[in-house]
Give the backbone structure.
Amino acid sequence: MESNIKIKLWGVRGSTPCANPENMRYGGNTSCIQISVPGMDEFLIADCGTGFRNLGNELDSNGKSLMGKIFITHPHWDHLQGFPFFKPFYDSKNCFEVYMPPQDGVGCKEILQGHLSNTFFPVSIDMLESELDCITFEKAKLDFAEYSVEFMWANHTVPTAIYKFTINGIVIIFAPDNELPINIDSDNKAFVDEFRAFVKGANVLIHDAQFTKEQHEQRLGWGHSNWETVIDLTKDLGIRRLCLTHHDPDHSDDTLDRINSKIASIKSSFYEEATVIQEGQELYLPN
Ligand SMILES: [Zn+2]
Ligand SMILES: [Zn+2]
């Protein structure tokens, strides 16, 4: 397994954490994934929902100096709430870079300062002890030694990134908050075309599937997709693995099991793998 890229899913819930017995199998923590690249010491993380706290606790245990890059899709609470609970931020040996797209002209550091202002939380960003470089990620491709990152704008209620990580030719797309139009033939065609071109041929697409189609019809414009439309719009694009995420907090394990079994009956013709993902799961690439 050491030669494989690993994606660990630390939080797959959307909107708000839910620590209820009926949510435990799929998990109650919000958006956070970690991508481990063979031979790379630095950590690669996307989103800082409440799952980010558990990730930090694990990283903290080895006592070494840590370095990492963190890509936040957008600053909604469910993607940022774990941020100040990440223990490695409280150790001066550690060094992190945080990337986020601008919010109507406001940059990454200012947004984080706002979230960690005294009205909302007792710890301000200046009280974090690790080195923390906040970088506003304008629309462009960033090339690092082991991987590149680019993004397209999601269809969401605030400026939100759909991230594409390319690592040794392996493409991982992370789109936890993105509303694909329910009427795929006539709504927002330019966006749909851009989205389909962006995700085409990906090894893994981790995509928002907060609703069923029936629920989505009642929640148009809320910024989230239904799982049926995600499949309709991606099934002919040569995507190897489809991972549905950002589960609605009111979707119990039983509800998500039912969706998973519906997907199981159609996936084999379109994807090598298609699942409703669970917190704690690890994906290995290429498999
Ligand atoms: Zn969200
Ligand atoms: Zn959001």
About this structure: The longest helix spans residues 253-267. The chain has one domain: 5-285. Residues 5-285 form a domain with the Metallo-beta-lactamase; Chain A fold (CATH 3.60.15.10). The chain has a mean pLDDT of 94.
